[in-house]
Amino acid sequence: MKCTEERFLADVEGHEMEVVHEHDNVYRHVRFQKPDQSAFWFSLITWPGHLCIAGDMGTYVFARLRDMFEFFRTDDYEGRESGLFINPDYWGSKLSSSDYPRGITEFDPAAFRDAVKDDFDTSRETDDRSEKFYRALWSEIDYDILDPVANGECGEEGARSAVEDFNYDGWTFSDDWWERDLTRFRYHFIWCCYAIAWGVEQYDKSRAAAAVSA
Question: Which of 134, 163, 187, 210 is deepest in the core (most CB within 10 A)?
Fold first, then answer.
């Protein structure tokens, strides 16, 4: 399942913001939660140079600017049109720790299948072997490589090894497979990226409204 903005917004519908602690525009603890419910709650906690998101969807600590709310503000990002803007690649590079020991990415079977198909299509377009050969070749690839991956019988290492070892009547895959990125960001990490962007936005709206009414 892919975490989308729509999915995230449905998860936090009805959340209320509570400023648990705030000092000097750097030390903050802001909590978001549905009243009397624990599902999808999260807190944003900042101190100089760091932001921690902790809650139902995991814990991640980022480090970059003195005020990390400034780092995660997305309303002035160039190219933003509407909705929430997240930058998982860049934000992930500023991650200092998380409670997920295997990191923020995981093997992506769809990306693997696309890469396999790309090698196959490139070869078919540049090779002079018959269509009959390529139909038989694809059947072998599907049976020996793609089906086991799709059925969860092997992970990333097994998938890469299967490609590396594959040989059908002298046909082999290109030799750069161990260098290819076949991963995707984990669902929980993307959800937390949306939560940070949304949470900072809610905090800013609350502070702007308070300033107007003061």
Answer: 163
